[in-house]
Fold each of these.
Amino acid sequence: MPHSILSLEEVAARLEIQALLTRYTVAVDTHDWELLDSVFTSDAWIDYQSSGGIKGPYPEVRRWLGEVLPLLPRKQHLIAAPHLAFDGERAHARTYVHNPNAFPQPDGPSAYMIVDAYYDDELVWTEAGWRIAKRIEVQVLRRDGR
């Protein structure tokens, strides 16, 4: 089966986007909101509604994340390598996410919530590198319990 060889420019773009997506996971898991600012464009549109969140412009979603994520003190976003499609200085990424969360309960063992989802992202090349201009999270599975 024939396949095309990636150019060095496309290999570099793929690595930069993978680093960008990893930076997102580090930012949200450590509550580093300044790092999160380096992931999205300032006018990005984000939709987390499928997992019970909000949708709206990045500044509004950033504030919401700052209020909600500290309620889940133990969390870890695990992502798979994205499927990428390029169109000049724009790209689309679908990235699969496994997100276990645990939080202490006053009456015993920790409660947990595990979300499996994917992010559909529209990315743009900026002077600062690749950034997410639009993100839609699509929840596939959710498990809650103790």
Amino acid sequence: MKVSIIDIGTQSLKHYIFEVKGNSKQIVHYKRYSEANLGESDTISGETIVRNLNILKQCLETNQLQEVSKLQILGTEILRRANNAHEFTLALKDLSGHDVEVISHDMEAQYLYEGFVNIIPDGLTFAAMNIGGGSTEVVIGDKDHLVESKKIPFGTKFLKKTFNKDGNMDWRGVDSYLAKEISFDMQVKNAFVTGVLDFISTVGPHLGFVFEENDLTNHPIRFSLDTYVSFLETFRNTSIEELRKLYPKDPGFADGFTMGQSVYVAVARALSAKMIIPSNNDLTDGVVHRMVA
């Protein structure tokens, strides 16, 4: 059975198709539309609605070609906040025939936790994080329980807007702000799971990184906290233009990558994480878990 998820965020729209067989799943299609860009305004413009409807048409056509059986459309921070979100979601429903699930912070955390719990070994406490353009979610748990979740009320767009000075990022200002704003009541000394494994594993070797091997299924590399910080500094010293060239499958993803990794590092520091594991899993894996249960 094939299932599809369309994840509408503040900064991008992401389209996934998974092949599900029993308890196993494999991603057979993924595309990120960075041009979707709903923005940070309290009103979604008519032009933006039309642009996203055109993107949705492409996604639906792909679903038809792939013979998708189930579809779920998700909305997060921007659709919780925009004063005309209903107008946007109604237009999406008219086109797709499916309601948009605008998920709460609590549900976003639950999906995120469930997206990782099946890959985590017994006895391991872990944290996982999802950063978007408008907000950031962090969950802490183990194989059996979601122990804590925390919403950080900003994402990459706010940080870029605040700390970009005449085209140059004030990284010292970013680090100072994040250290002040991000704290936790507990520590996660075992593992902190980050996103964007594909980008990291594709681009990192071109910048001279040799990764430490990891034995977790589908998660072949890892960092210590010190090497993760060094990795971040390398990316900060690499131009966005160069990063775009090194990731031709989605050049626009490079635009927010280093900012996102800065937040990951700040969270890892606040949690005193000893092992950092890049992953391609995210909250959509938790959505699939619910869709086929």
